[in-house]
Amino acid sequence: MIVKPFSVFQALAGERACYNSVLCINNQLVVLGTKSVHALTMRLWHERLDYLVKLNHYTEAISLGYELYLEKAKAVEIGRAHV
Questions:
Q1: Are 13 and 47 found together in one domain?
Q2: Fewer C-beta neighbours within 10 Å, C or N terminus of the chain?
């Protein structure tokens, strides 16, 4: 059985990939690790709230909104990328 790469671009990228490489695409920061790829998304405060509501995480959205109102919210929230 022959396994074909997803695309010629991905095949070339695989040959030239360097671990710990960083790439910025639109509002995402992509980091190539030794065993995985991490994608970090930059969001405005209202996008963060909308995202939590979309996931039905209402308690977290209210908590974040309150922290933003008090100007005590963290500038960085770390979560899993959905790729």
A1: no
A2: N
The range of the structural domain enclosing residue 51 comes to 43-75
- Nearest-CA neighbor of 39 among 74, 82, 76, 9? 82
User: What distances in angstroms separate CA 66 from CA 25, 29, 41, 52, 70, one per listed residue?
Assistant: 31, 27, 22, 14, 6
> Are residues 63 and 29 located together in one domain of the fold?
no
28, 39 contact by CB (below 8 A) = yes
Q: Is 0.85 surpassed by the pTM of this model?
A: no
Q: Are residues 33 and 63 in the same domain?
A: no
Say what the pLDDT of residue 23 is.
82
Count CA within 13 A, CB hemisphere, residue 36. 5
Residues of the chain with pLDDT under 50: 1-6, 81-83
Q: State the greatest distance between any 2 C-alpha atoms of the chain, in Å, as a whole number.
A: 59
